[in-house]
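User: Before I run my own analysis I want an independent prediction to cross-check against. Here's the chain; please return only the structure tokens and, at the end, one sentence I can use as a sanity check.
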Amino acid sequence: MLAEFAGGRNAASDLHAPWGEYSEEALLRAQPDVIIAGHETDLHDVLDREPWKSLRAVREGHVIEINDARINQVLYRPGPHYNEGLRWLIERLSSLSTPTTKNAH
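Assistant: Structure tokens:
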């Protein structure tokens, strides 16, 4: 839900279980623009293998691992500091969506 508040879309929003499994085929079809993963996922260990290396987000370096335990907890457990997690997401997602412009002379 925070992804939507931050201007993103959760590619796995069709999963109805909190910790459901997402197939490789579905992941490849979704082609996420960014991947945000908790620090416990060890995602960096698999990024050079399929299907991960075929994802647009991985090829463009838009993989964000949450290394701050406090932010990780805020993002996964709604509570009084939820806005802190939302601010963290907005900062990261907005930096990816801001187009770079070349100086026109």
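Sanity check: The longest helix spans residues 82-97.
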